[in-house]
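Hi Y.,

Following your request, here is the sequence exactly as I used it, all 117 residues.
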Amino acid sequence: MKLELKLTADQIGFIVTTFESIGKISMADVQGLVIQTGISKPTLSIIVDVYDKFADKFKSIGRKSGIFDQDKKYTISLKYHEAYAINAYLTATSFAHNPHQQSMSEMVKDKIQRKLV
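Below is the corresponding structure, written out as tokens. Let me know if you'd prefer a different format.
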């Protein structure tokens, strides 16, 4: 089952920066992240794969976007479990220290939750 998400370049960039640390995490640090966030190891494994997909999309947007493309929406296809993993991680992670990240997190979660239902 596939889901189509329409996200802005800012939202895709937010996901890339949020998941960047997970994409580079060592196996020794995985248990600490599991304890910190409450996210399971399989979910973190899915997020690592999804990170690559979003990073590639973000790079391609960066190459061909201009100043007038800020509100343009880009379509990303995700499998149901990938969207679920993103939503679970964003729900478990607190962005209270940064209002902009909190806002981006809420927007992305809202879009994903509407597709998951």
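The chain has five helices and two strands.

Thanks again,
Q.
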